[in-house]
Amino acid sequence: MSTTTNINYSDTDGSGNLTLYKNYFDNGGKYYARFDRRNVTIDNLIARTQKKDIGVNAITAKHILSLIKAEIIEALQRGESVNLMDLGTFYIAASGTSGNTAETAEIKKLLVKFTSSKETNEAVSKLGINRIVIADSSPSIDSVTDLFTGLNDGTLTSKKAARLDGGRLKISGSDGGIFFAECDTDGIYSEDESLWHKVNPESIMRNLSKTLEFFLPESLEIGKSYRIILRTNSRKGNEDKKTFVSAVSDIVTVK
């Protein structure tokens, strides 16, 4: 008689969260939604099955599933589509072609895709939504460091280098850049961009998502306070958004 191996696993409720992401390739300001993933492993599924049928042997079940997995991969390697227990179908698809005729056409690569079945789609049609949140994809400036002194105390040395640390900072786009806007003691600055001081793009030493390093514009006056304004339309994958996003630093004083 075979022994039964139990795997402990706690079920989640039949609901989830939606995150809205702004579509920067759409000038209408629309969002697209993503259902937050909670991955379930084969071990998790076996554990759930054991709750319903205590006679299920986890080791045997996992071995059988590994054999089925190997057969699915072999079928795909033969160019066959695989219907997975009416959950949906794995099939081979071509990604991108170039050339105007059959003789000049070039397939970039073949890949596996999955089409869910009607039964699978109906199973999630009544899934509940706990909450909907909007993702903030704007850049953020977390700290400003004077690279000449090594301090991040709100002061910057005239004509020397500085570093911004934060998130989504990478500068992109012809109208993007790093700007210094003179401000008062309350941090209020003019919206007139003609009064701002732009960092020369050639003075930017590091242009990364989490770090920017650059030399201060020579036009900044010693003793005056500024806000550093970052403007970019860069996004992950080095693609450019249609609209710019901005970040504003705390007050910095040039010395």
From TrEMBL:
It comes from the Bacteria. GO terms for molecular function: DNA binding. Residues 19-131 form the Bvu-2165-like IHF-HU-like DNA-binding domain. Residues 140-246 form the DUF4469 domain. InterPro entries: Bvu_2165-like_IHF-HU-DNA_bdg (IPR049893), DUF4469 (IPR027824), IHF-like_DNA-bd_dom_sf (IPR010992). Keywords: DNA-binding. The keyword Ubl conjugation does not apply. The keyword Transport does not apply. It holds the Pfam family DUF4469. Gene3D superfamilies: 2.70.50.70. This is Nucleoid DNA-binding protein.
